[in-house]
Amino acid sequence: MKRPVRTALAVPALAAAVLSAVGCGDSRASGSPGASDSGIEGRTMVDGGCPVVREHSPCPDRPLSARLTITTGAPERTVTKTTSGADGHFRIPLPPGTYTLHPANLTGAVTPIAQPMDVTVTSGRFTTIVVSFDSGIR
Question: What backbone torsions phi and psi does residue 105 show, to the nearest 5 degrees?
């Protein structure tokens, strides 16, 4: 009696389970396994976009949901991608090391824009940063 070969089904199921466990995808807490005690956290913010700021009419920064891609190494390789929440908050578990955070707005438009940031993660703590997007309004 021949047994059915289940390799074709087992491999995709195993791959899906591994990818889910590793945190690939767009979850706000994606990152590398075993890195839950260190990483990068913070907020993505965009300037108020006011052409003229007056003393009695403040123009505060606002939270911005943004795409964050974390890379490392030379040649540069993507470690993880995530999206900050509507309130701008994000938390990315990562093992200790040096990373580059590449922020992008979700609309794909030229503005608002933010520059890549180098971030060092140390063992046992989350490095807190603010990613500042420029609205382009002057």
Answer: -75, 155
Q: Is residue 14 part of a domain?
A: no
Number of domains the chain contains: 1
What is the number of other CB atoms lying within 10 angstroms of the CB of residue 81?
18
We report the CATH number of the domain holding residue 123 as: 2.60.40.10
Whether the model pTM is above 0.90: no
100, burial (CB in 10 Å: exposed 0-12, middle 13-18, buried 19+): middle
Residue 99 neighbours by CB under 8 Å, 6+ apart:
40, 70, 71, 72, 79, 118, 119, 120, 121
Question: Region 98-117: what's the mean pLDDT?
Answer: 95
Cβ–Cβ under 8 Å, residues 99 and 72: yes
Boundaries of domain holding 59: 28-133
Pairing type for strands 39-46 and 126-133 reads: parallel
